[in-house]
UniProtKB/TrEMBL annotation:
This protein's name: Rho GDP-dissociation inhibitor 1
GO biological process, one term: Rho protein signal transduction
Biased composition (Basic and acidic residues): 7-24
Residue ranges, compositional bias (Polar residues): 25-35
Primary location group: cytoplasm
PANTHER family from the UniProt entry: LD16419P, RHO GDP-DISSOCIATION INHIBITOR
Protein keywords: Cytoplasm
Family in the record: Belongs to the Rho GDI family.
Localization (cell): Cytoplasm
Length: 227
């Protein structure tokens, strides 16, 4: 998703594709879903500094808890954290709950993320109308520890050709019982004969350490009307 109308038309006519780098997947053909060398390089950063060992958030919160000034300083940094959502281990836990497609042309489509990562192996996960404005909304929950630099990566192919690549930084989040919500900027689906059809996509949610919390492959259709 996040396809540009004019670029789609030009790409289909000339055999070239346009790629958008900005900054919430599901299973198809091997050629369309196999990551290329360039895709792998996008997710690597060999120049990151070496950091010390991670400390469990519970340990950090309970340390110096009798010092009022330190307690307030920690709350300014990470907010008020419910210890019920904090574990004994230092690794954060991020669960993507659902993806919502909002459009002024229809009711919201709420797409629940399946546990097995296969939304609809027998067909498209959703259909979106050509030329329609839409907004993606992610709902997710963070527990156990702070997740730093959570970001959304999405790649789209049509007939085994990559036609779109989107990256967006969601932010850094502390554990809490209530889900977080992130709203993406509004976009418009491409339109025209060359834009309509079936697409395959891969969506990933990763953090600063390239830890992947969700990778899901799916297909979707762009048609003349909503279905």
């Amino acid at each position: 998703m996040g396809l540009e109308d004019d670029d789609m038309k030009k790409g289909e006519a000339s055999g070239e594709t346009s790629e958008k780098e900005t900054g919430l997947s599901r299973k198809n053909s091997v050629s369309s879903l196999s990551p290329t060398e360039d895709d792998d390089e996008d997710d690597r950063d060999d120049r990151k500094p070496e950091l010390g060992p991670m400390i469990a958030l519970r340990e950090q919160l309970e340390k110096d808890k009798d010092d009022e000034s330190l307690r307030r300083w920690k709350e300014q940094l990470i907010g008020v954290v419910d210890l019920e959502d904090v574990g004994e281990t230092p690794d954060p836990v991020v669960k993507i709950l659902d993806l919502t497609i909002r459009s002024p042309d229809r009711e919201e489509m709420v797409l629940t993320i399946p546990e097995d990562g296969l939304p609809n192996p027998k067909g498209p996960w959703f259909t979106i109308k050509e030329g329609s404005k839409y907004t993606l909304v992610f709902n997710f929950r963070v527990t156990n520890n702070i997740v730093s630099g959570l970001r959304y990566n999405n790649t789209v192919w049509k007939t085994a050709v990559k036609v779109d690549s989107t990256k967006a930084m969601l932010g850094t989040f502390s554990p809490q019982s209530e889900p977080y919500q992130h709203v993406m900027p509004e976009e418009t689906t491409p339109s025209g004969m060359f834009a309509r059809g079936s697409y395959s996509a891969r969506t990933k949610f990763v953090d600063d350490d390239n830890k992947c919390y969700l990778e899901i492959n799916y297909t979707f259709d762009i048609r003349k009307s909503w279905q």
